[in-house]
Amino acid sequence: MRFFKIIAVIVVLLVGAYAASMYYFVDESKEFTIEKEVDYPIEKVFNQFNNLQNFTRWNNFFSSSKTIEIDYYSPYEGQGSAISYNDPKSEDGGEMFIRYENPNKTLRYQLFEDEDENPTLIDVKFTVVSAEKTKIKWFVHTPKLSLLSRAQNFWTEDKFAENINKSMLNLKNVLGNKVEKDNQLAAIKYDSLMVEKEEEKMILGVNVSASNKKDALYKNIVMNYNKVNNFVSMDLGKKNDEVGYPVLITDADNFKDNEVSYFFGIPLSKKIGIADNNFSFRSVSPTENYVIYYKGSYAGRVKAIQQLMQKAKKDEMRYGDVYQMFIESPAEGQDVNMKISLSVYR
Q1: Which residue from 3, 20, 284, 314 puts its CA 20 to 30 A from 99's CA?
Q2: Is 152 within 8 Å of 145 (Cβ atoms)?
Q3: Is residue 121 located within the same domain as residue 142?
Q4: What is the mean pLDDT of each run of 10 residues along the chain (346 residues)?
Q5: 225 and 172 in a common domain
Q6: Whole domain around residue 54: which residue ranges?
Q7: What secondary structure, in 3-state letters, does 157-219 show?
């Protein structure tokens, strides 16, 4: 019994000594500054920070996990935008907000990790160094920690700096368009609904009507992909870096019909003269889209499309065509890897 009392006294003394050392020698919160430069103009850099959908794709805090799930909340960009995240594997989660924005100059983030009531405050200042160079400066203020948790402050700054270093490498790859296709695919967050602004496109392709029974539609899509791809690559002599991903355009809810009419094509940089009347151009105007990435059987895409339509109805938005962009070329007997976009408007 006496032995346990001695052990208890020692434990109490150790805990007391630890608490005292934390109280007198370790700050309850940390403030530090990190500065970097990137060789890209302010307009391109700032958009990677104030659009949280862009931000989470290159920021190592989010992009390093393959299991993290992220939800994005309106207005999706700038002051008032927000995300919530959860990683089932690491059991980490939290919320992030943009509380203030001065375009191309400053941003203020609030990051709530796990169930902490007090956020980490991150102010980011952007300075134009030259037409092709931008300085980025982070001012970080961590939340107050209890005495027993305060030891975390020994490595908080190093951990944040390491994350910034990895993130800057990712950002340079994104801005320089040097990310390999495999890395791009690995960064995609499947089954997460997002909002994107689609730029104007000029698509060369074919108008088609096909049966919607069983796998007849997908076989028809594969056939027309080969037809269009052969024309673009062989007849027109276009290389891979001159064209976009193949895309199918159709009515959002015609997956219920016995016969489906669609336009299948490949985006080109500009409209050119063609002699074959089997092919035509379709111009796609800039749109706001609800987007979801999907991977699986082609028939399974219906659930993803319905999810986009339900989101539009919930937000009281009208919707138009659905765009099915094939990240991996469609092939018979294989699953699809695609980006599904629903154009929406008031």
Answers
A1: 314
A2: yes
A3: yes
A4: 57 48 52 89 91 88 84 87 88 90 95 81 94 92 63 64 89 64 61 83 92 89 93 82 85 86 89 87 90 92 92 91 92 91 90
A5: no
A6: 30-189
A7: HHHHHHHHHHHHHHHHHHHCCCCCHHHHHHHCCCCCCEEEEECCEEEEEEEEEEECCCCHHHH
